[in-house]
């Protein structure tokens, strides 16, 4: 499944990143630039602790 969502062109905050994760809940963070950016932001700021299965797209 590929998506056509674009990476946000604005600075993410905790609230915005969580909102993007909810908005694109059906998207795969490895393929969705918007969800991937939100997921990486949340990981880098310690708000999400990914398990081993998601390490590939947490980078």
- The helix-and-strand class reads mainly alpha
The main sheet comes to: none
Helix content: 25-40%
**Secondary-structure element order, N to C:** HH
Describe this structure as you would to a colleague.
The structure is a single chain. 37% of the residues lie in helices and 0% in strands. By secondary structure, it is mainly alpha-helical. The protein has helices at residues 14-23, 33-44.
In short:
This protein is mainly α and about 60 residues long. Helix content is about 35%, strand content about 0%.
What features would you highlight for this structure?
single chain, 0% strand, mainly alpha, 2 helices, 59 residues
Question: What's the layout of helices and strands?
Answer:
Layout lengths: L13 H10 L9 H12 L15
Helix pairs in contact: 1-2
